[in-house]
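pinned: reference chain
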Amino acid sequence: MKNFLKTRFYQKKIHKIGLLICIWTFFLIPNHHILACDICGCGVGSYYFGVMPQYHKHFMGLRYRSMSFESHLNSQLLRTKEYFHTTELWGRFYPTSRVQIMGFVPYSFNNQVDINKQSKKIQGLNDLVLMANYNILNASTIQDTIVRKFKHSLWIGGGVKLPTGKYNYEEQDAGQVANPNFQLGTGSLDILTNLFYNVRYKNWGFNQDVSYKINTNNAKNYRFGNKISGNSNVFYIRKISKHLSLMPYAGIYFEQSALDTRNKEKIKETGGDLLASNAGMDVYWNQKLNIGVNYQIPLSQNLAHGEIRANNRVVLQASWLF
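pinned: its structure tokens
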């Protein structure tokens, strides 16, 4: 009888312990969700050059960029998909033959979908980008002619990314839109540096751009990791008629981001690198109207220590050269 009572006593104790574990787990899951909120495909504060229209001309244009990510790949409970759609007004102006001014005005529609098909959406103006570049190799007064055998140009410069996009992320508010990477802006004034090189022999050419973004702390004491990115493309110009020319191109795109920090502490579930194939086509009409499409397919990636996977990306654009 004594052994039976002893056994019952331990069984009740084990049941209580099990119940406490279940209760603790229940409360732990929401906290885990908060801690994992930094894992998200990053669409905030990004900008993209690509193969731009002819280097010696002013232009104004409109383009559309679409990219998506899958996040929390190692968790069935927290797995999400993020979609970033950006419409952007951009342009280039030459105050002198050796100086170009560029501007980017993006507006985004972002959507995050969880495993239960519940979505969180935000839309609005992103961070504006202003920059200036200087031509240090071969002045930009080259005549635009399809038959010129050789020409090249090298531009270096920099600029600023202004905190015009809304950044309103509160870490403890699980009911709001996902995380710092899902905001419309970074909330910080960031510094940009860039280099463009373009060389052409007869109808073949090579285009290279490299940019480096230095981020600063925002008002929430969050700092996005510095980022380097670039495009390398080989292109071919084919004159179809007096008015129409085609320029197909192909190459690679790369990007690498350092870890984000919060209160000067590094966040492991951020940063990473991506290498993608790059292919596109530009159509020129009367050397004034340019319509183009660009498509990227990831070749290798390691984003947020394997917690994020980037999907294919597409860019559509139309520009007026003058």
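why pinned: DSSP finds one helix and 18 strands in the chain. The radius of gyration is 25 Å.
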